[in-house]
Amino acid sequence: MEKLIINSYEDFAARLGEQLGVSEWLEVSQERINQFADATLDHQWIHVDVERAKAETPYKSTIAHGYLTLSLLPYLWDQIIEVRNLKMLVNYGMDKMRFGKPVLTGSRVRLVASLDGVENLRGICKTSIKFKIEIEGDRKPALEGVATFLYYFN
């Protein structure tokens, strides 16, 4: 898969309304879920207790934390786009974010992203990226929303 190359505000502006790309699939393993639980101190049993989840949840499996799914966004985003001539990138916000479907352990997810908005704020490029994290084999996405980033170009 070839990354989209962006060098400036003008490059972003030229792609307004377009799909920017689709990432590769990434497996969400129990090991990844456990590591996230350790990092966030969120050890709720539906994420980490495999036997109890099999017996007591409608999913018959542990599921990824919603915030784990969200935290994959930068990694998956990096597969889609390469921004050059960049001094700094800042996360600005999330809007219209919805967790549509739980990610069962062992599922594979990917990112589909499009450019929803772009503004030049006195030399700072503010982008609104409409994103959807899809689950392989499911029509309903795990997560969707709009991520806003501030790109400071050299």
Automatic annotation (TrEMBL):
Pfam families associated with the record: MaoC_dehydratas
Name of this chain's protein: Putative enoyl-CoA hydratase 1
InterPro entries found in the cross-reference section: HotDog_dom_sf, MaoC-like_dom, NodN-like
Annotated ranges, domain MaoC-like: 12-124
Domain of life: Bacteria
Native species: Segatella baroniae F0067
